[in-house]
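Q: What would this chain look like folded?
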Amino acid sequence: VTLVESGGDLVQVGGSLRLACKVSGFAVDYYAVGWFRQAPGAEREEIACISASSHGSDVLYADSVKGRFTITRDDDRNTVYLQMNNLKSDETAVYYCATDGAKLCSESSYSGSRAARGQGTQVTVSS
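A: My prediction, written as structure tokens:
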């Protein structure tokens, strides 16, 4: 199982970015896949997750990103995307995609140490 994030960049406050998480070793719709972020000195924050297609592909968002971030999945490309709009300066962090094998986001601890995750991609929001 391999996950590779891309799309991180330097962006101004209010700007947008789209992150991609290319998955290999399993079909991307088979498990729930989530995005979490970690800023220096801060705890990991789970921000978005999409459940397996067999379980309705339900999505969950943290309150902090609801209405601004959108998680989607392209099964043909085996990739999960995170569209981030109206970015804020305190959202500077390394963003990771991950899966712990759960089918439902509500049952997933994808930011935990047992989850498979990528190397992360840096998002820097400048004011």
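The radius of gyration is 13 Å.
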